[in-house]
């Protein structure tokens, strides 16, 4: 990087998922390699349910909690953890100029209302009038705001006071990749000093499962770790929140903040998926990463378990001979925030100086105790969007 | 004009523009109707409005989108606007735009026709549950719905059509989305990362549920008759916005790149300002600080002084809250000149195009600069004494406009202001 003072440091991580909450818990649970999934509530679909935190801890006003749906509470909670981790909670002057990029889909539907309307419409004499009447009387006015994509960011502004800028990227896995890429690029170019980047998902939703069931992407029981899902494979939706505080080195040093890791490079791509296109894309992206010591490098994969993308990614990683872990096997696939989650995990692994334990009956993930200085994070969307990040230890 | 601005960053110019609204397709038709004070608001015919309090909108009914859905129509509108912009810019080769794509689109979800289709396919007569719909979804008969209702789908299809580079960014900052798309393009060019960017914003989401949702928040006017008089920004009797559809697109380029290829410079995006509001999900901080700070940041980012601003393209939604707070903000920023600087709202004619508004209004602001003529705020029959601004009431006016602000504010505390000007002679 031309200007070392504009290195992007990760100075805070906030995680909440089926594994629990907080950085250390996530590290331990990943190291224990015991997936937590629910195969019955949404049977035949497998989901990774949120280990409910005490939301009061980061969202003190019950009124704020009531204004949000679960995905927003989860994200607002994780954002608070990240700010705490960076030592920025309540630092109004910095929060007032902190940039925010949230990767989001939309919020959950009201199942009871939808089911009643769909049922009633089938027999309604005047379906149009019926729909108007029922929506007008049955939709909660606040539900709209609880569903709107940009209202996770809005809630973070309200609850945590982050107001420098507020941007919400949409578009499944790619939105998380671009959120990190843009935050990194802005910091490197001096357009931003400190950014809160992340997102959340409520994966325990029939309406969400439906969207992916259309294309056969939602994993049905029995559960297998992602490398062991074969064809057509699929992903198990995750409920989780993941946020990073990314900060210019000079800004972090000026306030005495400790780097968890350096976010060195973020690159992305769009391919119209054909057999081999994920392979070609990842090879090309990998070629743009700065070279380093492969004996101290590992891969944290965002592989979804969907064929053929996951098999192609597997072959690309195998060809490089790097040790790998797919976080989706443990925590599930959260779609928009998954890339952020994996960058957070990379920062934790670098902090521990080693990789956590494998979770893969196929043997592709091998035990690895070697020292760790570099982690390549992959993000290959189930349908679109490819990206890589290089996260490095700050020694 | 130097190729770098006062801060040493590449100057960002506009070399292509496209627009679609309820007034029509293309800059020529839109501009002639705007300066004639014509309204595109009409009674909704797309779906039954029985029993609804609001029965009007600025729908774009002349563009076919089949099978109909909000993302389908949004994509068609975006294509029209982007086609016009790219053709005008004459940049790249057909289907090979030499830069990234930033697209503001409304959030996506499956809609009532799809839910009904699923319930019917599940054979759930009269008592359909989500389990029934989910079972039908998994049959493989509805694969096309997966792609259509992915949030990335509109951007992905546009990226394929225009051959833009890299992973496109779809974004939503509510009613500031269109301005955010432009802001992202400006930033990418200023970083030196790219020479050109295609910034598009589109919204084709006037459907029953969207209308009811805004209606339940008491955001919409209920002055249904006559429709063309419903949107009355800054008037004392304003009572809500009119939902509308449309799209706007800009081809942005570094000045250096545009000059090198001999492109016609349509305008300059001189500055961007942004500041989020932490006061409330739908209301502006009562002291107006975020919108004041947003406008001031934009002017400072442009390297200008407040005195240099001689026109404001207002957010001007026609809601009691927005217009009051925008007046407060503008008054604080302009100070003594507040009553002299013209400010007008295109939404009085095209309605509130929501996710598209920031880009639609950026195109109109650039046309205002190009024509040195300010489109009016129509339906200004009962001035609001609490808004002592020159809102260019009812009739377009010739004026010297050198540097213009365009405001975009949205739910969720979103505030973005753009500063646009002309290439100095």
UniProtKB/TrEMBL annotation, chain A:
PANTHER family: 3-OXOACYL-[ACYL-CARRIER-PROTEIN] SYNTHASE, MITOCHONDRIAL, POLYKETIDE SYNTHASE-RELATED. Keywords: Transferase. GO terms for biological process: fatty acid biosynthetic process. The keyword Transferase applies. Gene3D superfamilies: 3.40.47.10. One of its GO terms (molecular function) is 3-oxoacyl-[acyl-carrier-protein] synthase activity. It comes from Rhodoplanes serenus. This is Beta-ketoacyl-ACP synthase. Residues 16-216 form the Beta-ketoacyl synthase-like N-terminal domain. It comes from the Bacteria.
UniProtKB/TrEMBL annotation, chain B:
Pathway: Lipid metabolism; fatty acid biosynthesis. GO terms for cellular component: cytosol. Residues 9-422 form the Ketosynthase family 3 (KS3) domain. Pfam families: ketoacyl-synt, Ketoacyl-synt_C. One of its GO terms (molecular function) is 3-oxoacyl-[acyl-carrier-protein] synthase activity. The keyword ATP-binding does not apply. One of its GO terms (biological process) is fatty acid biosynthetic process. SUPFAM superfamilies: Thiolase-like. NCBIfam families: PRK06501.1. This is Beta-ketoacyl-ACP synthase. The lineage of its organism: Bacteria, Pseudomonadati, Pseudomonadota, Alphaproteobacteria, Hyphomicrobiales.
